[in-house]
């Protein structure tokens, strides 16, 4: 039995119940320059793009301060993502908010 | 404390390119403590900060352990530029002995090599950009498996617990990054007493507030240590409970990849 890497059970977070999380906004279509504004600072949410899909990492624990292992939100991070997380299925758990144009 | 079943091996503690933070941290150990280490566990033969011997006497004592049964603890990164001349640990017959040479010499013979502190395990502070002395990790420099005990500094229990396990059982369970699972098995975020604040979305906006420090840049969610349960300074406290975010000092890439350490403008 593998009892290592114990993880805290997933609970529904308060912000997931919040109206702004539930409301079905139409998917965004952003250029790279527009994506750069979503840097997670001063009221802007933190978005990142991998392989053309834009994800919301504003409330991702591993992305504290809209940053993760020197990466900053507001960018296309396809290359770095593949370098460290290929095949780990992490993206499937992130919230999709749109596509790169 | 019970006496070990095996004969006591020699222990060498090399300090390479670092700040002596780990040997100081070791002295704060309590259960077992430093006195237990030197009286019951090992013959502690060499450490540059603690040795009574100086200059060539100290070097003689270090080199006399070659050919014996010894465990090598290394703190600090390995400077490689200019053939390692950025870090000289002593002189032998009038010739400077670089940290790089000493490590290769002793590392080839040690029963175990234990890299203590983030400079030794990954380069850490010493290898931070622009890395003027070309520092690399102990593992990279010796080219043989090294037990990795990251942390800035390393907790005395992680050092003494690892040593005790090695002496009593010959080995201990390591994860895929060669860290003992006993101490590095869980994410800080998964054992944090402030986790319920995270789950409820209640975040500190300033240092000193007693809720979740996520929005200030807490690296607990990407760092594996037992700080929340073990705590520091003989088990009294740890950064988050002192209202300051985890800076990921035990994660690879520290410090550069764990920055920014503190932010006040996060949504
Ligand atoms: C688009 C880029 C990236 C995204 C979206 C991403 C996302 C994530 C997420 C969501 C987690 C938490 C996983 C969990 O809860 O199980 C995580 C963990 C982690 N990420 Fe990334 N990541 C990215 C890039 C990188 C890169 C470039 C590196 C390498 C430097 C990296 C290294 C890590 C490590 C080491 C952990 C796990 C820490 C641990 O559990 O011990 N990530 N990442
Ligand atoms: S303070 Fe840090 S480790 Fe603790 S719950 Fe918040 S983000 Fe996680």
UniProtKB/TrEMBL annotation, chain A:
Transmembrane segments: none
Domain of life: Bacteria
SUPFAM superfamilies listed in its UniProt record: Cytochrome b5-like heme/steroid binding domain (SSF55856)
Cytochrome b5 heme-binding domain ranges (all copies): 30-101
UniProt-recorded name of the protein: Putative heme/steroid binding protein
Automatic annotation (TrEMBL), chain B:
Any one GO molecular-function label of the UniProt entry: electron transfer activity
Cytochrome-c3 hydrogenase C-terminal domain span: 184-261
Pfam families for this protein: NiFe_hyd_SSU_C (PF14720), Oxidored_q6 (PF01058)
Matching InterPro entries: Cytochrome-c3_hydrogenase_C (IPR027394), NADH_UbQ_OxRdtase-like_20kDa (IPR006137), NiFe-Hase_small_C_sf (IPR037148), NiFe_Hase_small_N_sf (IPR037024), NiFe_hydrogenase_ssu (IPR001821)
Primary localisation category: other
SUPFAM superfamilies: HydA/Nqo6-like
Span of domain NADH:ubiquinone oxidoreductase-like 20kDa subunit: 19-166
Co-factor requirement: [4Fe-4S] cluster; [3Fe-4S] cluster
Residues reported in the UniProt entry to bind [4Fe-4S] cluster 1: 19, 119, 152
Cellular component terms (Gene Ontology): [Ni-Fe] hydrogenase complex; cell envelope; ferredoxin hydrogenase complex; membrane
Binding-site residues, [3Fe-4S] cluster: 227, 246, 249
One GO BP: anaerobic respiration
Tagged with keyword Iron: yes
UniProt keyword terms in alphabetical order: 3Fe-4S, 4Fe-4S, Iron, Iron-sulfur, Metal-binding, Oxidoreductase, Signal
Chain sites annotated for binding [4Fe-4S] cluster 2: 189, 192, 212, 218
Subcellular location: Cell envelope
Gene3D superfamilies (alphabetical): Cytochrome-c3 hydrogenase, C-terminal domain (4.10.480.10), NADH:ubiquinone oxidoreductase-like, 20kDa subunit (3.40.50.700)
Record-stated family: Belongs to the [NiFe]/[NiFeSe] hydrogenase small subunit family.
NCBIfam families tied to this protein: hydA (TIGR00391)
PANTHER family referenced in this protein's UniProt entry, alphabetically: HYDROGENASE-2 SMALL CHAIN (PTHR30013:SF7), NIFE / NIFESE HYDROGENASE SMALL SUBUNIT FAMILY MEMBER (PTHR30013)
Subunit structure of this chain's protein: Heterodimer of a large and a small subunit.
Protein name per Swiss-Prot or TrEMBL: Hydrogenase small subunit
Phylogenetic lineage: Bacteria, Bacillati, Bacillota, Clostridia, Eubacteriales
């Amino acid at each position: 039995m593998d009892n290592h890497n114990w993880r805290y059970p997933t609970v529904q977070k308060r912000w997931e119940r919040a109206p702004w999380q539930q409301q079905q906004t139409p998917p965004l279509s952003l250029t790279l320059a527009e994506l750069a504004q979503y840097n997670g600072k001063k009221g802007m949410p933190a978005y990142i793009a991998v392989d053309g899909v834009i994800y919301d990492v504003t409330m991702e624990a591993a992305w504290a301060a809209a940053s993760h292992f020197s990466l900053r939100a507001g960018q296309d991070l396809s290359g770095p993502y593949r370098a460290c997380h290929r095949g780990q299925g992490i993206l499937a758990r992130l919230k999709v908010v749109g596509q790169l144009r | 404390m019970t006496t070990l079943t095996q004969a006591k091996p020699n222990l060498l503690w090399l300090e390479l390119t670092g700040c002596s933070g780990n040997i100081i941290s070791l002295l704060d150990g309590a259960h077992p403590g430093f006195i237990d280490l030197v009286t019951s566990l090992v013959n502690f033969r060499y450490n540059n900060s603690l040795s009574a011997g100086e200059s060539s006497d100290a070097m003689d004592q270090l080199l006399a352990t070659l050919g014996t049964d010894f465990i090598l603890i290394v703190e600090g990164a390995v400077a490689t530029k200019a053939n390692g001349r950025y870090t000289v640990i002593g002189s032998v017959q009038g010739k400077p002995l670089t940290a790089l040479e000493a490590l290769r010499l002793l590392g080839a013979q040690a029963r175990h090599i234990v890299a203590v502190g983030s400079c030794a395990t990954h380069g850490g502070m010493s290898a931070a950009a622009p890395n003027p002395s070309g520092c690399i990790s102990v593992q990279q420099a010796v080219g043989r498996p090294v037990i990795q005990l990251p942390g800035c500094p390393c907790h005395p229990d992680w050092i003494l617990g690892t040593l005790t396990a090695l002496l009593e059982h010959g080995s201990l369970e390591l994860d895929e990054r060669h860290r003992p699972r006993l101490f590095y098995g869980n994410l800080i975020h998964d054992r944090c007493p402030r986790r319920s604040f995270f789950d409820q979305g209640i975040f500190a906006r300033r240092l000193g507030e007693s809720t979740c420090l996520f929005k200030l840049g807490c690296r607990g969610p990407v760092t594996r240590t037992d700080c929340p349960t073990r705590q520091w300074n003989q088990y009294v406290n740890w950064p988050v409970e002192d209202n300051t975010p985890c800076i990921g000092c035990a994660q690879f890439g520290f410090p550069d990849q764990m920055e920014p350490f503190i932010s006040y403008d996060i949504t």
